[in-house]
Amino acid sequence: MPAAIDLRSDTVTRPSAAMRRAMAEAVVGDDVLDHDPTTLQLEERIAGLLGKEAALYFPSGTQANQTGIRLISRPGTEVLLEANAHLLHYEIAGLADISRVQVRPVATPDGVLTAELLRASLRPASPHVPKISAMAIENTHNAAGGKVMPVAVADGIGALAREAQLPLHLDGARLWNAATAVGLPPARLAAPATTVMVSLSKGLGCPVGSCLAFPGAARDDVWEIRKRLGGGMRQSGILAAAGLYALDHNLGRLAEDHANAKRLAAGLAGHPAVTPLPPDTNIVMLDLTRHPADAVIPKLAERGVLVTAFGPKRLRAITHLDVSAADIERAIEVIGAVLS
Length: 340
Hints:
- By secondary structure, this protein is α/β, with parallel strands linked by helices.
- The protein is built from 15 helices and 13 strands.
- Strands 2-8-7-6-5-3-4 form a seven-stranded mixed sheet, sandwiched between helices. A four-stranded antiparallel sheet has the order 9-10-13-12.
- It starts with a strand and ends with a helix.
């Protein structure tokens, strides 16, 4: 049997030999005591790429997201976000536990949160309803199939946030993919947000790590929150070196993943047992018309194609740097045959 084609997530990538060498050769120090030089270099570079004054390196995107919300919100208030946001569904109620905020989900028809929908959720001040302390957006939107938030839409939300004097958090785990898809610098997409999380362990292929970017004046507060959550690392430059390598070598190739995702969707279009959603980036949602997802997934795995369920009759496939164009052609053949 050929090697399995793993489309479960872009987190399954393994560091290349060159990335491992960069990690092994990294100059390191104690980041908790007096900064690790390689980690500091990565943080400065991420801050520059996102157009923010400062950034800190985190073990995970969830911890960075939670820190961002904890920084900009207040206990006993509400945070507004899209109804299917990762922050709401896939971070095990961290906002309630860590930030002690109530989440108010805003329903959208397509996963794209807009200023108009948010404005309708802003309530007049009253002693009988919770105050709103922050808003959050997600770009790309995982549950919506890697959908890119249009720049004009994000700008509109940013303008509303300033008008309402509310800070805005951007869950940009795949912001690199969004920037690639629209052909703009990441800083342009991050501009409306107060705090921005970006992942290094998804499309960029690092084994570990995310960063949170924020205003420079908040550095001590972000450091304190990260420390309280157990995110302070010692010789973290060994891991940060992978991020620097990825920015140099893997950021520019994300368009290949997008092309492979489009080919996967196109190759299955017209099959009577599946309806692919046209992808914006590297996530392909496959809606099954005949069979439940739980019945299909093991059959695909037997034939060497790994995907995940994203609902009773929906499969999710994510392309990444360890999946080639030839792999996609084989995946199209296998998925088509199994569903037939």
